[in-house]
Amino acid sequence: MDPTSNHLALDEAIKHSDCLHVAHGMVWFEDPQTTLRYGLMLMRSDSRFGFPGGGVDESVISKEHILKSLEREFEEEINAKGINFTEKDHLISQIIPSQSTSTYIMSHFFIKQITKDQFQTIEENHMDAPHFVEETLGVVRVPIGGRFGDSEFTPIRFLKGFLNHTFAGTARQHLIMAIQSLKSIDEDDMEQLRQQHPDILVQC
What we know:
Elements: H1 10-13, E1 20-30, E2 37-44, E3 49-50, E4 53-55, H2 63-78, E5 90-97, E6 104-113, H3 116-125, E7 136-145, H4 155-162, H5 171-181, H6 187-196
């Protein structure tokens, strides 16, 4: 299914009570010294890259339940406390087919800017998370925009290779959608990604 063919607002998405609802999120920061932007991803225990998150364990789905569920998953998977997601952090909700059953999943994705100190605290403490090893094996700092002075390193060079890895579910597309939403990479660089990875859908 085309993950851009069924984009829904959060108010509309929560009406789909026939779907299993899941919520994932990316926190990011901009380094004030270099202007580089970094997003946080996971190396999951199934060897795929993804974002913190999981199922919404509620019989009646509401925006509040989704946000609280996402915050709980951030604590359980990466020991990130005090990440207060709001409706304003919502990027996309979409219906996707389940990979294991004949049912459908309503996938909610959020992006939230945090401080460099908050980001580094997560990096330092994530191995104390309750579900470390069981669900996640570590966090990954992914460059998503900006430049590092006059260095030859650029996020686009990293992303061209990074996107060749295996990602969980729609995590790969969500990463690109987040980058585009934040306008972290200029259109010429985004076109390079499209040419090298034509299967990536980046129209939000």
